[in-house]
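Re: beginner question about structure tokens

> Can someone show what the tokenized structure looks like for a real chain? I only ever see the sequence side.

Sure, here's an example I had lying around. Input first:
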Amino acid sequence: MAVTIQPVTTARELRRFIRLPFAIHKRHSLWVPPILKDERRYYDRRRNRAFQYSDAICFLAHRNGKAVGRIMGLINKRPGDHPECPTARFAALECHEDREVAGALTRTVEEWARERGMRKVVGPLGFTDQDPEGFLVEGFEHEPTIATYYNFPYIARLLEDLGYRKEVDYVVYRVELSHDPPVAYQRIAQRCIARGAFDVKQFRRRAELKPYVLPILRLMNETFARLYGYERLDEEEMRGLARTYMPVIDPRFVIVALCNGELAAFLVGMPNVSEGLRRAKGHLVPFGIYHILRAMKRSKQLDLLMGAIKEEYRGRGLDVVGLTSIVRAAREAGFAFIDSHHELETNIRVRAEMERLGGVVYKRFRVYQKDLKEKEG
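And the corresponding structure tokens:
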């Protein structure tokens, strides 16, 4: 039967769109289901502020009346997003290993983008840096982390067959915790603290951490602005992000450095919760939150979610202080290794720090691109 593509316009179609990955990944052992409540909020134009500054549309692919694929098209209308080459994004691409379905979905987004004057499409990228970025292309055997794609290997092959090429890669490092950081590394951290210019804080309770959450997100906004794919968050978006993550953040793995009372740097880690999310099966109640909290206590993998240093304080050892502090906290808590989460392959400075700690690249994610002047052969 022929594949038909339809925009998602009704609540019923949106439920199909949100639920489709559960069917596609039914026998995918390491796939991590999203929380359905969060998915409904994400795709709700009234509740997700990102729709206010984006032209966005969701499409479902059907064959013989059955949903067999999905995709989302996005155009960021805020200033500064690829001004030299008007660029659309695709996200949420899901389908079985079926070139006809994948081709129909991507062509639909490409044509939608062309009609709006776009000259290029990239993806998978969502509204902001906080959404999943890039399809996994190496490291399928390893545990996924929160807010990343865990796709089948065939997705990359389908995109490449359809004319998509690499735009940029993100690499992920594994840092073993069976040994201390290098002695030279520890000495740099000690000298930085001994100078007394910075007040380094670690936390035991969420109440202690709470006053720093919004300053952390504001510094993220300031320092990430020039990174590929990053979109600034407004104050309401930052508060929403804080509400989402605060219940599952373990304050022991948040490091902040202050200079004269001003936030100078931060580093945030989180126990891997993938197994808990799998057991939750998309629901927080009645038992999902129990599975997630239990997974946090049992996990041997600490995921680094984000970190940043204010520009005027760079080169003064704060990166080393943060990493040695979180390594120490992770070892004390019994973790076996740290997952660095996404690092842009071009971010040489951060990659060098991971490698000084003995980290090795063990996963790779890829954002693809296609020139919209080109037609599929």
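Each token stands for a local structural state, so reading them left to right follows the chain. The mean pLDDT is 92.
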